[in-house]
Write a structure and sequence with these properties.
Elements (H helix, E strand, L loop, with lengths): L13 H10 L3 E5 L16 E5 L9 E5 L4 E4 L11 H23 L3 E7 L5 E6 L4
Helix pairs in contact: 1-2
């Protein structure tokens, strides 16, 4: 049994990042151009991830920009207008991303999620199972 209380997470898997944003009810556009006009080195990876609340109003809330190794979260503190603080949001985003990575990698290793429980302290308890062949 493993227990992860706090782990360093980088956003490097585009499919898991897309799932995480969808899980948190955000919409996004993958692009070669970014709203913050930050230039990055050439890469075959999708470079910009513009995230917004709903499909009608596509005003960018924040972005993820690929640096060649991982997606970096970019937001303007002065224009932050979600109902939770940026720190709380990043913690929730990171937790959901880590949870999705664990599920994704566990399936590759032959495990299945039996169930998960959101604990009172905000942590997620995940029970995985693997049957012998």
């Amino acid at each position: 049994m493993s227990h992860l209380s706090r782990i360093k997470t980088n956003f490097s898997n585009i499919e898991v990042l897309k799932k995480t944003l969808s899980d948190l009810n955000f919409n996004y556009i993958l692009s070669e151009e970014n709203a913050s006009n930050i230039d990055i080195a050439n890469s075959n990876q999708i470079k910009y991830f513009n995230v917004f609340n709903n499909i009608v109003n596509k005003k960018t809330l924040f972005e993820f920009i690929w640096d060649g190794y991982e997606y970096n979260f970019v937001a303007d503190f002065n224009l932050w207008h979600l109902e939770i603080s940026m720190d709380c949001f990043l913690e929730k985003l990171t937790q959901q991303y880590a949870y999705n990575i664990i599920l994704s990698e566990s399936v590759i290793s032959g495990f299945n999620e039996k169930h998960h429980i959101l604990m009172k302290d905000g942590s997620i308890k995940v029970v995985m199972e693997k049957w012998n062949d």
